[in-house]
From TrEMBL:
It comes from Catellatospora methionotrophica. InterPro entries: Ketoacyl_synth_N, Thiolase-like. It comes from the Bacteria. Gene3D superfamilies: 3.40.47.10. This is Beta-ketoacyl synthase-like N-terminal domain-containing protein. One of its GO terms (molecular function) is acyltransferase activity. Residues 58-158 form the Beta-ketoacyl synthase-like N-terminal domain.
Length: 177
């Protein structure tokens, strides 16, 4: 069974992509807004405005794949623990990628499985994360757990000169019309 791409979206896509939209309930870090914006662009191209039609949305999986995860939140949590400071509840909530995956699923009414992956990284973490996401999507679709899968790959800038980037791809079984 092969997969066919239904739609895709990314951040950034154009020179004007400088500031990510604010995502209510997520603070300090660009990771969750990055995932949500790439997903919005992809799903918007496939379905227009949310929600996805019930028949399709109920069988659409959400897969978040990132070699580094939310590095900014992880660093802030580590600083708070090292300093003996109390950690704010929003940081605890957003410390796992499933939080933003759940946000995307709820916003677009996607009822399929939600999966977070963290591939080893490498020379091109976006390509590696996408390959892992596609492999998981293929497994979920082949096993009958979903008809479609939204794969969102997100990598935050970790060094000067880098930029946050995300890619969202909606795929389905190539044998289904």
């Amino acid at each position: 069974m092969g997969l066919v791409e239904v739609a895709r979206g990314a951040w950034p896509e154009a020179e004007g992509d400088v500031q990510l939209p604010v995502l209510a309930g997520f603070v300090m870090s660009s990771f969750s807004p990055l995932v949500a914006e790439a997903a919005r662009r992809c799903l918007g191209r496939a379905h227009g405005e949310p929600p996805v039609a019930a028949g399709r949305g109920a069988r659409t999986a959400v897969i978040i794949s990132s070699a580094t995860g939310d590095a900014v939140t992880a660093a802030e949590v580590a600083r708070a623990v090292d300093a003996g400071r109390r950690l704010g509840p929003l940081l605890f909530f957003q410390a796992v990628p499933n939080a933003v995956a759940g946000y995307v699923a709820a916003r677009w009414e996607l009822g399929g499985p939600v999966v977070s992956l963290s591939p080893a990284g490498g020379a091109d973490p976006v390509a590696e994360s996408l390959a892992e996401g596609l492999a998981m999507a293929s497994l979920l679709i082949r096993d009958g757990d979903a008809d479609e899968a939204l794969i969102v790959v997100a990598e935050q800038a970790l060094t000067d000169g880098e930029h946050d980037r995300a890619l969202a791809v909606l795929v389905r079984n190539s044998e289904v019309n």
